[in-house]
């Protein structure tokens, strides 16, 4: 008689393989990442430099390597946030709060709809920022570049929390008075944070 089956389904087998791979990576993380960095740097040094225009300056301004590529994308996040919110984050949330507090029920409903839309956009932006963070960590390790991207990620997260707080207060049955009281007490994160 043969041995009992270790895995009864393909899913169990795949899960066991994932766990074994994860365990191996955790044990040899530093050497694996160092090998990846060495291989990357040896391959990136073989690449051609970006083409220059006739004036001698680089018109395309392509990033030097993959880390620079992801950092460049992360540095554009404040502009993306401003584009989503329509103004700098603090100003945009102040305006939404003011509109909700001083408006009619129709304006309040419109403000709630705007907040829901912002929450959806910020949620997708957080996923993008997480992707940037993961790429920089994988390519460069835990260094200044990674901390810079992480700081941007925290800003996006805190802005989403600020929008979420405001939205939750607008859902309160007391509505406008609850928002007004919270605003007076400087409860909202956008009143105390130092966002860009």
Fold and architecture overview:
- With 196 residues, this protein is mostly helical.
- The chain folds into two domains: 32 residues, no CATH class; 127 residues, Methane Monooxygenase Hydroxylase, Chain G, domain 1 (Up-down Bundle).
- α5 packs antiparallel against α6.
- About 5% of the residues have low confidence.
Radius of gyration: 24 Å
Cα distance, first to last residue?
70 Å
Overall helicity: over 70%
For this structure, what is the CATH class of the largest domain?
Mainly Alpha
Task: Please provide the count of β strands.
Answer: 0
Q: What does the main sheet amount to?
A: none
Count of individual domains: 2
Region (Disordered): 1-64
Biased composition (Basic and acidic residues): 8-18, 35-50
Question: Which descriptors apply to this entry?
Answer:
Methane Monooxygenase Hydroxylase, Chain G, domain 1; 73% helix; single chain; mainly alpha; 196 residues
What order do the helices and strands come in, and which of them pair?
Blueprint: H1 10-27, H2 29-44, H3 66-75, H4 77-85, H5 89-102, H6 105-140, H7 144-170, H8 176-184, H9 189-192
Biased composition (Basic and acidic residues): 8-18, 35-50
Region (Disordered): 1-64
């Amino acid at each position: 008689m043969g041995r009992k089956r270790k895995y009864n389904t393909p899913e169990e087998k795949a899960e066991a393989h994932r766990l074994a791979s994860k365990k191996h990576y955790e044990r040899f993380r530093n050497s694996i990442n160092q090998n990846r960095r060495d291989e990357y740097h040896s391959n990136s040094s073989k690449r051609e430099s970006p083409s220059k225009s006739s004036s001698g300056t680089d018109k395309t301004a392509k990033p030097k390597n993959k880390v620079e590529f992801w950092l460049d994308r992360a540095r554009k996040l404040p502009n993306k946030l401003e584009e989503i919110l329509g103004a700098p984050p603090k100003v945009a949330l102040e305006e939404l709060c003011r509109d909700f507090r001083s408006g009619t029920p129709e304006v309040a409903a419109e403000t709630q709809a705007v907040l829901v839309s912002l929450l959806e956009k910020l949620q997708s932006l957080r996923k993008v920022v997480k992707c940037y963070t993961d790429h920089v960590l994988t390519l460069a390790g835990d260094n200044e570049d990674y901390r810079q991207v992480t700081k941007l990620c925290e800003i996006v997260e805190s802005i989403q929390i600020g929008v979420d707080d405001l939205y939750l207060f607008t859902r309160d049955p007391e509505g406008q008075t609850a928002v007004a009281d919270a605003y007076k007490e400087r409860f909202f994160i956008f009143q105390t944070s130092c966002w860009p």
